[in-house]
Amino acid sequence: MFQGKILSAKLYNRKLTSEEVAISAGNTDSVISESEIRKAMTPEQIKLVDSAHQDIEEINQRLMKLGDPPEENQAWVDLAHSIFNLKEFIYIR
Length: 93
Fold this sequence. Notes:
By secondary structure, the chain is mainly α. It has a domain at 34-68. Helix content is 62%, strand content 0%. The chain has helices at 18-26, 34-39, 43-66, 74-92.
């Protein structure tokens, strides 16, 4: 999964040639920084963005506390262990 920030993105309505890609990659004049965006925002919008960033950080911290998700097949492994253990109880009689 992608983790990070996209600092610049461009959309084109056609396939670019390799020369056009090289020119586009070297052109940073059209990049708008986060500080420029914040300057254009109203105080209410800035508060909303800051609140959203804080919420995202809190959620990420909660996710980190939960640890990694179980393996895709972990449920099947747990079921197999349960069946194996249940089989042993049947023979104990």
